[in-house]
Amino acid sequence: MEPGDLDIEIRRELLTLPKGLADKVALHLVAAGQLIDSEPERALEHARYARQRAPRIPSVREANGLTAYLVGEWNEALAELRAARRMAGGPGHLAIMADCERAMGRPERAVELSRSEEAPQLDQEDAVELRIVAAGARRDLGEVEASVVSLQTAELDPKRQEPWSARLFYAYADNLLAAGREREAFTWFVHAAHADDEDETDAAERLEELAEKLGGPDVVEELVTEAEAAAEIDDEDFDGESAEIDEDFDDEAAEIDDDFDDDAVDVDVDLNEEIDEQSEAASADSEKAAETEGADETSEKAAKSDATDADASNEEGDARAQ
Asked: Where does the record place Basic and acidic residues bias (predicted)?
């Protein structure tokens, strides 16, 4: 655990502190980062300590805010992230701030943040996250159809597989379900499950729950087919092709095994004979090289060429045997 483990921007900000204090604050920030997954409460204690010692450092306030958010201390997280944004400028963590407002029962403020002047400054991933939070806030306000419409953007494309796709598809499905549009919700849960390589959502479980409500296997199969067609995914073709590949592979593997069993002894004999031949040839070349020592340069090069050819032949024999 070293101060050097911190991001370079944080270390640059800490340089404004006295050396001993900067090192101590850095160590507590590193500890907070290392403990957040396993011991979040202790991580927050370290982040708070750093904040107490360096309250004028934007990165320290940001770290405290993010740690508090992960622990569920919404009010503290919001205050710290606001302070960090005031000191450093820029849009900050608008999606997290909006989520804190929503968690504290103030969805209207979450919607306001999504409309703030800073929102257009967010990069694409953070903008999508803010849109997801704002859609949830609108649903909290009873504006269910508005929550659905607010997510209908260019990023809502099942053919795209971006880092945020699974969460966006899942949020859209969840809002469709809240609006009573179960068949459409099922389709988008399918898209979310396909995009969710990191197990960020419980889309698979939601699909199981919806399957029973929608009328059983026949209806589900129809919806899955439609969803896969929209995303240009055809699991049936894939499974069929995979089965053919597996079958061909198994047949070829069996033939290889048979050939190997039949020829194993012959290969070993041939290999040993070839090794003996190459060894004798190498010995002969060595004797010849010794007899012609002191000859002119042309004869010496010829002897070396013979030895090289013998080595190459030996390697070729090994490669054929393998």
From this structure: 298-307
